[in-house]
């Protein structure tokens, strides 16, 4: 390994460490966003009632983090466009946690029939529309950054198998972009009044699309790589 390769690998490790730290801070923001000082045992009970919403938000943030870590195992390139996209992901995640926390709180309040906090955050159909639109646009934008990351990283993949994995990841993130835009579009439409649940269920397009995608790939050829 020559000096330039060593420098590049060290820069890659530093960028990955920074991204990991930023995602950890995003998880901290998820907690802070709903945290209140505890002054009694009743306050503890109220704080614990926010755990399901935090768990849902944590799972989504972890999904994005795991995808970036997976990308890092497939290519060692971190400079140029890849570095800029990674920094854009960090910035977007740190903004995205706020609509994420709002949506998970309201979602858990609705799912629990009001037994968990969150339902009080929505006072009108306009509030619901704003929550879904802001979250959907943020989800689509962040997913779009992962589309770019995996697409730009393909030429720098370690081998053919890694290129195939990056292509598959890129295509799946395209599905996520589509789901976020469909959700935001449904929320912005008059349909929201009649079907307030529709924007949330739009995200079920993701697992359905992933299943269809891999089914088609297996049927066409196990060696397909875009």
List keywords for this structure.
226 residues
Q: Describe it for me?
A:
The chain is mainly α and 226 residues long. It has one domain (3-220). It is built from nine helices and no strands. The protein has helices spanning 3-33, 41-48, 51-74, 80-111, 125-153, 160-188, 191-194, 198-201, 205-220. Helix 1 packs antiparallel against helix 3 (51-74) and helix 6 runs antiparallel to helix 9 (205-220). The radius of gyration is 20 Å and the shape is globular. The mean pLDDT is 84.
Largest sheet: none
Helical content class: over 70%
Question: Helix count?
Answer: 9
Q: Report how far apart the termini are.
A: 31 Å
Poorly predicted parts? none
Mean pLDDT: 84
What gross morphology would you assign?
A: globular
User: What would you call the structural class?
Assistant: mainly alpha
Order of helices and strands: HHHHHHHHH
- Rg (CA only): 20 Å
Counting structural domains, the number is 1
Question: What percentage of the residues does DSSP assign to strands (E)?
Answer: under 5%
- How many runs of DSSP E, i.e. beta strands? 0
């Amino acid at each position: 390994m020559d000096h330039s390769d060593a420098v590049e690998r060290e820069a890659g490790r530093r960028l990955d460490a920074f991204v990991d730290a930023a995602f950890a801070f995003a998880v901290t923001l998820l907690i802070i966003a709903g945290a209140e000082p505890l002054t009694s045992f009743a306050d503890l009970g109220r704080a614990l009632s926010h755990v399901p919403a935090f768990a849902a938000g944590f799972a989504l943030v972890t999904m994005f983090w795991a995808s970036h870590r997976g990308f890092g195992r497939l290519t060692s390139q971190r400079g140029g466009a890849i570095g800029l996209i990674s920094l854009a992901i960090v910035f977007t995640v740190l903004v995205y946690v706020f609509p994420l926390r709002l949506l998970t709180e309201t979602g858990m309040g609705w799912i629990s029939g009001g037994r968990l906090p969150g339902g009080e955050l929505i006072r009108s159909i306009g509030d619901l529309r704003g929550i879904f639109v802001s979250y959907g646009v943020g989800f689509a934008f962040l997913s779009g950054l992962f589309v770019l990351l995996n697409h730009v990283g393909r030429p720098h993949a370690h081998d053919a198998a890694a290129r195939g994995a990056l292509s598959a990841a890129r295509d799946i993130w395209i599905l996520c972009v589509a789901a976020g835009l469909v959700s935001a579009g449904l929320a912005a439409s008059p349909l929201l009044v009649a079907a307030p649940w529709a924007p949330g269920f739009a995200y079920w397009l993701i697992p359905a699309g992933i299943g269809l995608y891999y089914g088609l790939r297996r049927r066409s050829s196990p060696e397909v790589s875009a």
